[in-house]
């Protein structure tokens, strides 16, 4: 069984754009399979991400973006302006990237975010927005829908205000996030638009006892699904890794079985069965058993023009280049970028959802093995 989002978008695009779009994706899927064998990218990435800002109103316990921004204040240059970000969006489209996700920081802190979202849709890409929901009022909801956004993730890390607000270090964050989900759900019904709404929760010892309630809450609020991200020690090639205690690991095991059952019965869980069964390894910090192909299927550009094959390498400060002035297309196809692609391919230091799910998609043997739970 593949990840729910892939299934949903394949069906939606087939209805909207016909078999031509599906044929192009099939060709890209084949070329991505062959790229590691060829030792170069034979096509563009399927997963594009644009970090439009590192600014955020929250200071989450599991996120290092605000602290990294404080450390580098004044050294990374100003955020790229609207015109340059639009050019980069166009370059993602030129590479044949089918979908582009907008993230941060908190993307809604950029006044031009709706213009950028609309630019992505104008370039024919599936357009996705990640937000904490804090600023997603009625006006923002209408602007998101008017821009043609097809998918929105709203973060919710606790089923109670106390838990969520404590993890996010932001008072009132729970009330605003839940209201944002309800607001988008109501608006899409009024407008009759196929907007996909997903709640996202980062699991840790601080909130694992509320995970079941979170899954139920996502359904009650009108979300299409919920995705769980296991909090993991992204230390980067050999850093110290704390070992979780056994009581927490048992909670992880019980939660995985619950989510597997909920996914089968209600289809509310976004994570694939194979990914869920890797939660134990993820929180334990053991090397990933899945080959990483993020350098071929993913591409991230941040608000200063720095380019990375994946989100962990951004967190570790290991950029593959900069496109404040240069060409993203040329960088992707360069020998220099291939060096970073090769380094990323040897990495086993993360289980981050967006990359691991694609790695599983391109590794049939691993997907089948972990779907059956034989990794234990």
From TrEMBL:
SUPFAM superfamilies: Radical SAM enzymes. InterPro entries: 4Fe4S-binding_SPASM_dom, Aldolase_TIM, Elp3/MiaA/NifB-like_rSAM, Radical_SAM_PqqE_MftC-like, rSAM, rSAM_sf. The keyword rRNA processing does not apply. Its cofactor is [4Fe-4S] cluster. CDD domains: Radical_SAM, SPASM. One of its GO terms (molecular function) is catalytic activity. The keyword Nuclease does not apply. This is Radical SAM domain iron-sulfur cluster-binding oxidoreductase. It comes from Geobacter metallireducens (strain ATCC 53774 / DSM 7210 / GS-15).
